[in-house]
């Protein structure tokens, strides 16, 4: 059996689990049809505690069911997506175009402060819904206003964004990654729209990644920075997350192909090598949580989302491989990473998933998280697109 055959077999298993278990669970028990929004978690007994709704989860669930609709899921994906869009537009966006971070199910604001991460996922979910044709004009205009407000209110003079105004430190690479992701999603959602704001934003983040986030010596991407985009002193400035090496690589390949940027493609190759060579445990077959900037292990817990980003990165590598051997290697890693992801599905509630596997192979006793559905269906969508 070739690597492609193994990857296709894993895709079939993944699709069946997503369509028959995960999507039905989060559409039913994970959606608050009475009050609005989505539930954050479902525990091992099927219980969802009542907690504030994070805007990032609203955006992620909108995306998840927009993708489910495109993939041909037999459930009512548009109803779930529309439910999320209505909640987002009615309760999560302030008059100034910024996004509130947390609300109660009735729309009462719990945390109205700006958070770049939440803002990014609101934009991302809106792009996914618009790409299906749902409320396209409304969402397009709202997203442009939100993008421009984000840039005007929190833009950093050297590129990227502040965490808050007045400034708080450290500055973080991670929310910028999701702004990058949202920008690319909007470029795909409205490619002929005559608005170059998404192009400019994607280019700004891509260039910031190449010049500031990635260590030119090791090719690894760090997480925490001072106000001038230099790594913060001490251990925080040394943290490297293998999952983010893979996730940034996937985005940099997409951007590099879009812009003809060979430097981005080369950087992505180095990021994947860091993530695979230094950030995976061959015994468990899983990507781990953290390494140091000298590429030694810091935290060997393996989280669910890290496995999905490994899948996406190797799919992107396979699509840009310059030799049959390189493509075979990349597809083999896709199959291995997808097989690793399946370990997390052994959850007491069908369609739920464990979040963390310890070094000894046992699961941390946690609830299944709504936020992880986005990671999984994004990986599945890429498997359908690129295989």
Describe the structure.
With 387 residues, this protein is mainly α. Helices cover 55% and strands 8% of the residues. It has twelve helices and 14 strands. The strands form six sheets. A three-stranded antiparallel beta sheet has the order 2-3-4. Strands 7-10-11 form a three-stranded antiparallel beta sheet. A hairpin with a 5-residue loop joins strand 3 and strand 4. Helix 2 packs parallel to helix 4 and helix 8 packs antiparallel against helix 9. It is globular, with a radius of gyration of 20 Å. The model has no long low-confidence stretch (mean pLDDT 97).
CATH architectural arrangement of the largest domain = Alpha/alpha barrel
- State the name of the first-level CATH class of the largest domain: Mainly Alpha
Strand line-up across the major sheet: 2-3-4
Which percent bin holds the helix content?
55-70%
Tally of separate helices: 12
How many discrete structural domains? 2
The backbone outline, from C-alpha atoms, is globular
Main beta-sheet annotation:
3 strands, antiparallel
Bin the strand percentage: 5-15%
The unreliable regions are none
* pLDDT averaged over residues: 97
Q: Roughly how many Å apart are the termini?
A: 16 Å
Oligomeric composition of the shown chains: single chain
By CATH, the topology of the largest domain is: Glycosyltransferase
Order of helices and strands: HEEHHEEHHEHHEEHHEEEEEHHEEH
Estimated radius of gyration: 20 Å
Number of strand segments:
14
Organism: Devosia oryziradicis
Family: Belongs to the N-acylglucosamine 2-epimerase family.
Protein name: AGE family epimerase/isomerase
Pfam family, one: GlcNAc_2-epim
